[in-house]
Known about the structure:
Helix content of chain A is 0%, strand content 57%. Chain A has strands at 4-7, 10-13, 19-25, 31-38, 42-51, 54-57, 65-70, 73-78, 87-94, 102-103, 107-111. In chain A, strands 2, 4, 5, 6, 9, 10 and 11 form a seven-stranded mixed beta sheet that branches. In chain A, strands 1-3-8-7 form a four-stranded antiparallel beta sheet, with no helix packed on it. In chain A, β5 (42-51) and β6 (54-57) form a beta hairpin. The N and C termini of chain A lie far apart (32 Å). By secondary structure, chain B is mainly β. Chain B is globular, with a radius of gyration of 13 Å. The A-B interface holds A 4, 31, 33, 40-45, 48, 58-59, 90, 92, 94, 97-106 and B 2, 4, 6, 9, 32, 34, 36, 41-46, 49, 89, 95-106.
Amino acid sequence: xxxxxxxxxxxxxxxxxxxxxxxxxxxxxxxxxxxxxxxxxxxxxxxxxxxxxxxxxxxxxxxxxxxxxxxxxxxxxxxxxxxxxxxxxxxxxxxxxxxxxxxxxxxxxxxx
Amino acid sequence: xxxxxxxxxxxxxxxxxxxxxxxxxxxxxxxxxxxxxxxxxxxxxxxxxxxxxxxxxxxxxxxxxxxxxxxxxxxxxxxxxxxxxxxxxxxxxxxxxxxxxxxxxxxxxxxxx
Lengths: 112, 113
């Protein structure tokens, strides 16, 4: 089983719908992140969390919200999806101040 | 101030050749510079990283060269192999939170047999 698991892996939805992407990890890391990947733009940080009670905005948080349900679970929500939120979304974890990022396999979201 | 610019966007190299990918950053306070490798259908994975107190770091066929005065760093892949074909991302951050990365735009490398 993957250390960082994302569900769903693929999702097609319509404009205005609420969408939740879920992430769970078995690495025991405190820190969790949501990144968005777009062609030609690289990856951009949406939100990150240092622990269950600590949530921080990243570069591009507008239109997104997150919930850290437990140390191992971090979900990303789009309250009202729009077409320019079509992208590949990655959850990642890290340990401590100097830990490398460990990414999940991504959730591809298409908003029609 | 927060941007990391990466070039080229795509690169084709013959097997056995040297692949070179360049990145430039603006914020002189950045002090952690990793490279991530991503295969199709997978998430990025850390390849190699450097801090500005050294000018070069080598791990196997992969080398990071760092030029602090020019605010540039590059990845060199020696003896490139078809298995190296992937997308490569440079990134920068602060040591206080190495997970909060500013990524470059990515370079798609194809190594031809």
